[in-house]
Design brief:
heterodimer; A: mainly alpha; two-stranded antiparallel ribbon; 4 strands; disordered C terminus; B: alpha/beta; Rossmann fold; Alpha-Beta Plaits; six-stranded mixed beta sheet
């Protein structure tokens, strides 16, 4: 068979997909699962439609009312059950060693990934298909625009594939099937319930990981006659969604579908890359160094693009402030404080995740060092798993500083949150705190084992936070408590931002301070202390790491040249 | 052909394989022997492209396995130790899946699946669920899956474990047949007798190092210093032992056994015939006069490898 024919076979007659059809769609499964899904959908459709018609509602409005419960059933089947099935089935195959068989077949990794992506949830696709007659009835009788529904289902399936790809990533990474299924189902809940909360602080793109904005933009209007007020509820629910269904991003307005597909495509691409890397070598890091840098840059682009109109467009920021502050709205400086705090927490979490994913442990470094020695290289190549993650850690922290400063400058130009921002040190201290923390974490992660890293992180982060709470609650020792607590990053972000905003000139209607009276006078010193602690720790542990790397290098190579062996290209 | 050059495999602090140099020619059935933890499975996993070595060159069928793993996959069949199966597939579905993933022509697929099932004597289980098979049958089903795409190189990790004596004989004959077809076959085991029956060449691994490698007869030849072991058994051994010793001691090292004496004899077949004639002419009641072939077990003893059963 020719290469071209092979590719055709791989795509159209994917044997991995066929295997799932055999194993997950036997007549016993079709009968048991099919009867359950069909009965539930039929029951819910009938109890929605018939009583409404009996009460005198027009049949088309009653039919429209069926849409939402059907979509919820489809969502549960495809998102929760389907994603769980992908993650657990894949990790079972991995645990048993069946994945090794597939790794060794000559099919391309892409064809294998597609086979698993569409094959593992094949039963859920079947169950989805069983809901379609009811959906068809609702669309036909309700007179809903088929084009709008097709548009909605384009995004619905894009979300489904994103979640199923998350399941593949979890299945590849987790050794326990139950753990993998629970992890991904937890992630679906996180994406639908937790992350959209962040969008209220301006990080609107988190909302677009779900199908909700498209539902509200495309379908909710169609249902207005059956469910009055649904359109208004949609605008309350989805941050930044305008009457037109467009999303502000930088100075542009993107159609909600385009924006959703863009965000989902970005994540899908990188998840695909993770699965592909794990497919080729299950012991490899999820990301290469350059992938991590590219991914983090992409996230920052989405963060800055989402926050740009929030900080620059009065209407949008007012909408968000009123979501929190009710009739009065939230004071602008307080809103600005929370936007920056969420920005730092998201960037900090992102840095931590990227660093954890690409930092080699000491064994990986030794392995790569031996390899470099054997191959006659003067250093470990930058983009290999065994190379130090220090340059990438520096890169992502530098990008964070740039993004943060761009947004501050933008907010400064609008003048809607503060009358005048305080000096450069106060502005930059929060992000410097983040940079020093990230470089400290990178050094600890690279030098010590995972357990030592977790223990040291616990001691440095949780213990000071607990001590601070005790000092506050039991002794009213506000200043002392803050000096201790500033070592815990979330507290450190809070206090350094509070220092920045309290030292800036407030607008007339803003609140004057963000910390208790006992803390405010000490904020500059506390901020300096926090940044100083992490700067010292970062330098100290980076030096120790460097010494250790040089000593290992000398031990492995048997000579004592002092530079470059484990450094980047 | 399989070739590794200075191949090393590390797991954290442990070196599983250290600077392994291996060369297996087409048509060879090569047995990799060693105790548990010797590095056999790591070696096979690297050859199967399932794992990257710390360093070293690996070539399978003349293809660089580290640079072009997908090309290696086209010519490679791999059967792991305790091989898993898709329990919710029927036996024919299991084989059909791999026929598809190895691009076996759809028109010939059913025929090929049936051929492989009959090669491993599982025709009767064609429609049985793979999860219901016994261990030995599972082993045979995976062997069928391994040979289904007609690979040029076969890597079999402990293929005979769990097989009953008949199945072992069938496996031996099958491997012999595949070897005669010019395929390169690497079989690992820690059971010596199992390998001696199947292999033309062996490699002995211990603690990540290859202690000995080559054709079994060549290794025997080398380790026995080109001497053959002759066993001379006498009637009424006690009465004639002294005389027999006197005859044999000048020929080489001797080792007294129960009713016989073994001598490391360096002469050819003609000299052995002469020796027998001389013993009989001197009135010694020779009950049997035979040459004992050195086995893999003797090789292991000779090179001092431990822990191998």
């Amino acid at each position: 068979m020719s290469e071209g024919e092979n590719k055709f076979v791989e795509l159209i007659r994917n044997p991995i997909w066929g295997k799932s059809v055999h194993s997950r769609l036997r007549s016993k499964h079709i009968m048991s699962w099919g009867v359950i899904a069909f009965t539930i959908t039929a029951f819910i459709s009938v109890v929605t439609y018939l009583p409404a018609v009996e009460r005198g509602m027009k049949p088309e409005d009653a039919a429209k009312m069926m849409i939402i419960p059907i979509i919820i059933i489809q969502g549960v089947v495809m998102m929760l059950l389907g994603t769980g099935a992908v993650a657990s089935q894949l990790s079972i195959e991995r645990e048993k060693g069946l994945l090794d068989y597939q790794r060794m077949t000559p099919m391309s990794p892409s064809a294998k990934i597609i086979g698993y992506l569409f094959g593992l949830p094949v039963r859920e696709y079947f169950l989805f298909a069983l809901t379609l007659p009811f959906l068809g009835f609702a669309i036909a009788v309700g007179g809903i625009s088929p084009m709008k529904m097709a548009h909605f289902y384009l995004v619905f399936f894009s979300s489904i594939w994103l979640y199923h790809m998350t399941g593949l990533v979890a299945g590849m990474a987790s050794s326990k099937p139950r753990q993998a299924a629970m992890m991904t189902q937890g992630l679906v809940v996180l994406l639908y319930l937790i992350l959209p909360i962040l969008s209220r602080f301006g990080l609107t793109f988190f909302d677009y990981l779900t199908v909700r904005p498209t539902f509200f933009a495309m379908v909710a209007g169609e249902l207005e006659s059956a469910s009055p007020g649904i359109r208004a509820a949609a605008e309350q629910q989805v941050t930044g969604l305008k009457q037109t269904g467009d999303i502000p991003f930088f100075n542009f307005e993107l159609h909600s579908t385009i924006f959703t597909l863009m965000v989902q495509f970005f994540l899908l691409t990188f998840m695909y890359r993770v699965v592909q890397r794990k497919w080729k070598d299950e012991f490899s890091h999820p990301f290469s160094k350059l992938n991590a840098l590219a991914f983090y840059s992409g996230v920052l682009f989405l963060v800055v693009g989402s926050l740009w109109p929030v900080l620059g467009e009065r209407e949008l920021s007012n909408q968000l402030m009123y979501q929190f502050g009710g009739e009065q709205g939230m004071p602008p400086a307080l809103f600005f404080f929370f936007v920056l705090l969420v920005l730092l927490l998201v960037c900090g979490t992102g840095c931590l995740l990227m660093i954890s994913m690409i930092t080699p442990n000491r064994f990986t470094q030794m392995r790569e060092l031996r390899r470099a020695k054997k191959l006659g290289f003067s250093h470990v190549p930058f983009n290999t798993d065994g190379a130090t993650s220090m340059p990438v850690a520096l890169g992502i922290t530098a990008l964070t500083i740039v993004a943060y400063m761009i947004l501050l400058r933008h907010a400064d130009q609008t003048g809607w949150y503060l009358e005048k921002m305080s000096g450069l040190w106060n502005q930059i201290a929060p992000v410097l705190y983040l940079v020093c923390t990230a470089l400290f974490i990178q050094a600890v992660r690279e030098r010590y084992s995972g357990r030592a890293f977790i223990v040291s992180t616990f001691l440095l982060w949780m213990l000071p936070a607990f001590t601070m709470i005790i000092l506050f609650a039991a002794f009213n020792a506000w200043a002392a408590g803050s000096y201790v607590g500033v070592v815990c990053p979330p507290v450190g972000f809070w206090l350094s931002l509070a220092n920045f905003l309290e030292s800036s000139e407030q607008l007339e209607n803003s609140v004057p301070q963000f910390t208790p009276d006992g803390v405010s006078p000490h904020l500059p010193a506390i901020t300096g202390f926090g940044v100083g602690v992490y700067a010292v720790l970062a330098i100290m542990f980076q030096v120790r790491l460097r010494q250790w790397q040089v000593s290992r290098r000398n031990a492995e190579l048997g000579h004592s040249e002092d530079e470059t062996v484990i450094s980047a290209d | 052909m399989i070739m590794t050059t200075d191949m090393r495999v590390d797991y954290e602090d442990v070196t599983a394989v250290e600077d392994l140099n291996l060369r297996i020619e087409p048509g060879e059935v090569y047995g990799l022997i060693g105790p548990n933890g010797a590095g056999k499975t790591s070696t096979i996993r690297v050859l199967a492209t399932l794992q990257r070595p710390t360093y070293g060159e690996v070539s399978v069928g003349g293809i660089d396995a580290l640079e072009n793993p997908r090309d290696v996959h086209r010519i490679l069949g791999y059967m792991p130790d305790l091989p898993p199966v898709y329990e919710d597939l029927k036996c024919w579905e299991f084989l059909d899946l791999f026929a598809g993933t190895y691009f076996v022509d759809r028109r010939n697929r059913t025929t090929r699946v049936d051929e492989c099932l009959s090669l491993v004597n599982l025709q009767g289980k064609r429609d049985a669920m793979a999860g219901t098979l016994s261990r030995g049958m599972t082993q045979r089903l995976v062997l069928a899956k391994t040979i289904l795409p007609d690979p040029k190189v076969l890597l079999l990790d402990e293929p005979a474990s769990g097989l009953d004596p008949n199945a072992r004989i069938e496996l031996r004959d099958l491997l012999k047949m595949l070897g005669e077809q010019g395929k390169t076959i690497l079989v690992s085991s820690h059971i010596l007798t199992e390998l001696q029956e199947m292999c033309t060449s062996i490699g002995i691994m211990e603690r990540g190092r290859l202690l000995e490698s080559g054709r079994i007869d060549a290794i025997i030849d080398r380790l026995s210093d080109r001497k053959r072991l002759l066993i001379v058994e006498l009637l009424d051994f006690a009465a004639h032992e002294g005389a027999l010793r006197a005859e044999l001691e000048p020929l080489g090292l001797i080792e007294p056994l129960k009713d016989s004496i073994a001598v490391a004899f360096s002469g050819d077949d003609r000299a052995a015939v002469e020796l027998l004639r001389s013993l009989v002419e001197k009135g010694l009641p020779v009950k049997s006069f035979k040459e004992q072939k050195m086995g893999v077990e003797d090789i292991m003893k000779k090179i001092g490898a431990r822990e191998v059963s």
